[in-house]
Amino acid sequence: MRKAFIAGNWKMNTNCAGAEGLASGLAEKLKGIETVDIAVCPPSVYLQSVAKALSSSNIALGAQDVYFEGSGAYTGEISCEMLKDVCCTYVIIGHSERRHKIGETDELINKKLSAAISSGLLPIFCVGELLEQREAGETETVVAGQVKKGLAGLNADKVLAVTVAYEPVWAIGTGVNATSQQAQEVHAMIRQLLADMYDESVAQQIRIQYGGSAKPANTAELMACEDVDGLLGGGASLKVNDFAAMIKTVA
Ligand code: PGA
Asked: Is 164 in contact with 127 (CB distance < 8 Å)?
């Protein structure tokens, strides 16, 4: 069975002291939990400080983005090896804010996924439709397109490193989460697509997180869905008590 995986995306929030405090607060509250994989993804400038605060805890470290080139003249970018050097296990790739606010394309996301996996990082690969796409009945086409283009050229061995995060863009940061039925529908569609692209065994092993206004109050209902294997929280992950409550609901 798939082990639950709950990750926190801190986005462009916190400062150094706040990031360390959040990390050590979580490490203390979540001590001993082994039934859920837990990760936090702080801003890249705080990765090292957070890594220290999490050392010998059960909380893994993730980054919010990575570049696909190994090294060189790529001003402002961060490589997979650099992330590993500061103890990252996971990296979020293709978050909707990077797709829609920064302009990342499926092709760029595909290169990042491929580079991350080759380096041994475990990507959290985000997909999700805009409100107008949902209203136009295009959810399945949009999400399936993102999955296919993002995973293009990755064989079954490689894709097993990936966690997919379904994050409907209209639910992110709005307080309005997808209902468990809406989430389950898309998660089941993604899993079927993975079975078609790879095989049933691969599809059954890949974890699919839900993200978009996930919080303590909706954790149990979302996690009860057959194909929801975890959560990627934004706002709720910035509060020790809320993020810990989400994890304890599942543990
Ligand atoms: P949210 O963000 O929980 O604040 O809606 C989720 C995300 O963007 O990963």
From this structure: yes
